[in-house]
Every structure is written in C-alpha cells, then in structure tokens.
Automatic annotation (TrEMBL):
InterPro entries: Gal80p-like_C, Gfo/Idh/MocA-like_OxRdtase_N, Gfo/Idh/MocA_oxidrdct_glycsds, NAD(P)-bd_dom_sf
PANTHER family assigned: BCDNA.GH03377
One GO molecular-function entry: nucleotide binding
Keyword Hydrolase attached: no
Domain Gfo/Idh/MocA-like oxidoreductase N-terminal: start-end pairs: 8-143
UniProt superkingdom: Eukaryota
Pfam families assigned: Gal80p_C-like, GFO_IDH_MocA
Gene3D superfamilies in the record: Dihydrodipicolinate Reductase, domain 2, NAD(P)-binding Rossmann-like Domain
Domain annotation Gal80p-like C-terminal: ranges: 153-303
Keywords: Oxidoreductase
Protein name: Gfo/Idh/MocA-like oxidoreductase N-terminal domain-containing protein
Length: 410
C-alpha cells in the first residue's frame, strides 16, 4: 500500500444520529494528524436518507484528503461497499450479531478489515473469520479492543515488565455496572435491548467483562484454567425509552446472568479472582471498579469510585469500562506518573500519536492510537494492535466462563 496516498476507508454503520462510529472513530480519524493516513471514501447506513445525512454531516469535520467523493450505500448487504474499488479497508462498526455477514463480504473482496469486538457472535464464528483471513494471506485485520491502547495501561505494562513490583502472584477484580447506566438488567434503554438477549453475543459477559479481560491478559498473560459461577439476581429487566428516560416501555424476562464470579490460573503461574455485578445503584463509598495486581514487592491498583465520570469521557458517571476511560491508577500508593518519576522509569509517547488535552485518558485517545498502529502496519511497518488472535484469546475465556457456570457446582 502506497505511503504517499491516504488509505481509503469504508465504514459500515456510520450514522448522522450518533453511535459508536460517530462518537469514537470519527473524532479519532478526522484529527489533522491522521488525515494524511486515512480518508473516508465510503459509508453505509440503514437507509438511503441516513447514508446521505451521514455523508453531509461528516464532510465538513472529516473532509476528503484526496478530493474524491464519498460513496454512500445503504441496507444490510455490504457487498457493494466491500467491492468498491475506492475502499482499501472495511470498518465494521455495527452490532455484534451482524459482524460476520459483512466480514465475509470484505474477505471475499480481499479488503483489509477493522472489526469491533467481539468479531464473531460466538467463538466459533471468530475462529472461522481467522481461518478465512489466513486462507487469503494478504488481508490484515484489526479488532476494536481499544482499552489496550490506553497510555496509562501501557505505562503499567512497562512497570510490570521492569520487575519493579516483583513477580506477579495474584490479581483481583471487583466491578459494578451501575443501575443508572441502563446497559444491562435490571434497567436498560430501548436502544440496548438487543444486548439483553444472550443469543446476540452482546451480553455483559461477552462485551463489558471481555473488554476488561483483554486488558488483564495484555498485562498479565493468558489463562490456563477457569472455574465460574453466575446468577440472575434480577429475573426481569425494565426497558425505558432512550428519548424519554422516565418512560417505561416494557418489562422483559432476563435470559442472561447479571452476576459473575470466576477464578483461574494464568500461564505465568499467577492466580486471578474476578467478580462482576450489574444493577447496584452508585452510592457514596461503593466502588464501580477495584482491580489489584499484586507482585511480591509491590502492588498496582486501578480504582473507579461513584460520582462524575473520571475523565468526562462518559455522560453517565464513573464507569468501570476501562476501554472507555482511564481509572485512577496507583503503584504502591503513589499516582502512576509520580511513581514512574520516582523510580526513574522513562516514558516517551509515540510522536505519530497526537492527543488533545481533553481527549487524554478517553476512548478517543485509545481509538486514535489503534488507527495509528494499524496505519503503520498497512503501510508495511510494525504496528501494535489487537488482532483476531487476541480477540479469540479473550473469547476463549468468555466461553470457558459460560461453560463452567452452566455446569454449576456441588
């Protein structure tokens, strides 16, 4: 791929009404520092009017760097976009159940791919995607596990790799998806109703917990065993209107657990203990995230308290989703950057990544970094980004948790 011309991107799922592509990928990719690397050449939305509105909206904030017209497509079949000769990379930013149909078309067209996590609705689907990509031989695929691109997480990895806290013996996670987020039971908004059905592969375990597992595996290595229990503490979920938050639309039966407790051994020999809950109200003193990495000589702690969003990155308060915003991180009680200075651990950011002050520690920083890294690789260099192998490693843990929880105990 030419280093002199921008890489032409076709986005499936870009809407003028918002959504993840609009709130994360557009701000990341449209930044001046990336406009010479990627350009928007095509987009696909649900209808012709939606596609036209998206083209008009993003033409000003993300002008074409090669002067070409942005081609628009609509509907559920992405064949035309994938076969557009002015598309080098197909970005799949739609809901998880619909990923594979688009990815299959992109692979058939020989296009490079970006896929939101999870790539496939099931582990088997993701493994089939990987096999198809490998069979082609010339396709590069990046998966949207953007949490591993947090500068803060990368600093923690450097500390762990330095041996400063000694051999890691254990790690403990306790997290809460607060009720007022309305992502999962006992309350959810209508635009998230698809995530309440475990058949769609977008549950609390397969999305939220999986993203945190990605960061854990990135820092500490893969699991070798898992034992889990799960429960539905809330048998029903109230569905509220996303436009009128106080309006109850309906109540549905819950078919997916809202509490998970699992433990396992890591390949390194360390042990992991992980608890996730959904539905508790955020109240003073209740942490939405406490993640501890214990080494023989020291400890790294990630914390998110109740209250306003830790970075302003999310509109619904302090989130345990470290793929969306950095938590507060301390090492042996010292703030992360202070510890780096005290211990003389040097940190130098990649000059290719430009992050505005208000974007630091947010998903815009994380997403921009992953595109910077993907761009390097597409142009023949060395880029560090989450691959299908990385995603499948996470999905294997998710699958093991589900199977272990179904078996039960006693």
């Amino acid at each position: 791929m030419s280093n002199s011309k921008p890489i032409k991107l076709g986005i499936v799922g870009l809407s003028a009404r918002g959504g993840w592509a609009a709130s994360a990928h557009v701000p990341a990719l449209s930044h001046p520092s990336l406009q010479s690397t990627f350009t928007l050449s095509a987009l696909q939305a649900s209808s012709a009017s939606s596609a036209s509105a998206a083209k008009e909206k993003y033409a000003s904030s993300w002008p074409s760097s090669d002067g070409l017209e942005v081609n628009t497509y609509h509907g559920v079949d992405a064949s035309e976009l994938c076969n557009d000769p002015n598309v080098d990379v197909v970005a799949v930013t739609i809901k998880a159940p619909d990923h594979k149909a688009v990815v299959d078309k992109a692979i058939a067209a020989g296009k490079h791919i970006f896929i939101e996590y999870p790539p496939g609705r099931t582990l088997a689907e993701s493994e089939q995607m990987r096999a198809d990509v490998m069979k082609n031989g010339n396709i590069q695929a990046m998966v949207g596990l953007q949490g591993v691109h947090s500068a803060a997480l990368r600093k923690v990895k450097k500390i762990l790799d330095s041996g400063k806290i000694g051999k890691v013996i254990s790690t403990t996670v306790v997290a809460n998806i607060a009720r007022e987020f309305r992502f999962y039971g006992p309350e959810a908004v209508d635009q998230n109703i698809y995530a309440q059905d475990r058949a769609n592969g977008a549950t609390m375990l397969s999305i939220v917990i999986a993203h945190q597992l990605s960061s854990l595996i990135h820092l500490l290595g893969p699991f070798t065993s898992i034992s889990a229990i799960a429960s539905k503490q809330y048998p029903t979920t109230k569905i509220y209107s996303s436009k009128e938050p106080k309006k109850l639309v309906r109540t549905i039966a819950s078919n997916s657990p809202d509490h998970f407790v699992f433990a396992g051994a890591l390949k390194s020999g360390a042990q992991a203990s992980i608890t996730w809950r959904s539905g508790y109200k955020s109240v003073p003193g209740r942490k939405n995230l406490l993640w501890i990495i214990d080494g023989e000589e020291g400890c790294v702690k990630f914390e998110v308290d109740d209250g306003p969003s830790q970075t302003g990155a999310t509109p619904f308060g302090a989130t345990p989703f470290i793929n969306l915003a950095d938590p507060t991180i301390t090492v042996n009680g010292q703030p992360l950057d202070e510890y780096l200075t005290t211990e003389g651990i040097e940190w130098e950011e990649d000059a290719a990544l430009v992050v505005e002050k208000h974007e630091k520690g947010t998903f815009v920083e994380f997403v921009r970094r992953e595109w910077v890294e993907f761009g390097k690789s597409l142009r023949g260099g060395q880029g560090e980004f989450a691959t299908l192998d990385d995603a499948i490693e996470v999905q294997k843990v998710v699958d093991a948790v589900e199977r272990s929880a179904q078996l039960g105990g006693l």
